[in-house]
Amino acid sequence: MAAKKFPVEAGHIMMFARAVGDPNPIYHDAEAAADTEPGKTIAPPTFYQASAQFDPDYFLRPKIGEPWFGSGKEPTGVPPTRTGGDGGTGLHAEQRFEYFRHVSPGETLTLKTRPGKSWERQGKRGGNLKFSENITEYYDESGELVVRATGVGVRTEKVVESD
Amino acid sequence: MALQASKVQVGDTYTQKLTDDLSRTQIVQYAGASGDYNPLHSDEIFTTKVAKYPTVFAHGMLTMGMTGRMVTDFVGDGRLTAYSVRFTRQVWPGDALTATAKVDAVREEDGQGLVDLSVTTVNQDGDVVVMGKATAKIDP
To answer: Residues A49-92: pLDDT tens digits?
Structure first.
């Protein structure tokens, strides 16, 4: 599951740009943005990932009234089997964006997601690694493809060793 | 300010310091803005006791986002046509990160000038934390 609709909002872009440490006024000052080449506020390059906010089922956000796998009274709020209690972890291996144009506040994007390739290999620090691609395409209100995002996730057998 | 083909050469580099001391609070800020509340990034108790990592660590996408600032500062607003990275190493609170773009090619496609960049972000030890590529529209 993913968000079906992604309303692009000025305040969200401002907060996102702050979080990634980007002070460029095009992301938070509409007047300054008017003097730039795009002529208006645009989304920063990785903003599209924040469509997760609009996915009602996004598994990395606590749901109201449901147990959460982070800590509360206990180090985790759910049984270990659901957290990969074997020490294995799902991590983000790779991310690719293709931009057909950059979007602005006030637009609502429609998302289409599909699985991509999957493969396995033996890793040095995390044991056997299982990779899988997930492709999300973002369409504007006129049905034009504006951005294609491809995420590659990896599932490790054990905790990734630091060296 | 967009790049001009006449003023860049293959091999040119552009470097930007992204942070001197990545704070846990910035990681929390990113969780809030992106919507990715995986406790591995903000919940020290879960991360050390359940997931068995030494401490919380940054979202890969935070490092990609921070690195994106360097890329867009270099190529100009609204100029990117592609940006991809591999996450090669975890980024921890306290890390200092520096991002560099290197010009791999200046070319033309359907009459549009493009610049291809290699993108690399390293930590304070010089270890690569993300590496990738970007392509942007460029003026003649």
So the answer is: 999 999 999 999 999 999 999 999 999 998 755 444 444 567 88
**Chain A residues lying within 8 Å of B50, measured CB to CB:** 69, 71, 75-76, 80, 83, 85
Q: Under DSSP, is residue B6 helix (H, G, I), strand (E, B) or coil?
A: helix
Predicted complex: ipTM over 0.85? yes
pLDDT digits (tens, 9 = 90+) for A97-120: 999 999 999 999 999 999 999 999
- Taking domain A5-156, whether its CATH number is 3.30.420.40 is answered by no
- Mean pLDDT confidence for B125-136: 98
Structure-token pair, residue A37: 């080449």
Per the CB < 8 A criterion, the answer to whether B75 and A37 are in contact is: no
3-state secondary structure of A17: helix
- Given a contact cutoff of 8 angstroms between Cβ atoms, the answer to whether A7 and A106 are in contact is no
**Whether the Cβ atoms of residue A129 and residue A118 lie closer than 8 Å to each other:** no
CB burial of residue B7 (10 Å; 0-12, 13-18, 19+):
exposed
- The DSSP output letter for A51 is G
Q: Give the residue from chain A lying closest to B44, CA to CA.
A: A71
The residue behind tokens 């867009």 is B72
Indicate the CATH number of B5-137 among 3.40.50.2000, 3.40.50.1240, 3.10.129.10, 3.20.20.70. 3.10.129.10
How far is it, in rounded angstroms, from Cα A145 to Cα B97?
Answer: 33
CB contact under 8 A, B60 and A92: yes
Q: How far is B11 from chain A (nearest CA, A)?
A: 23
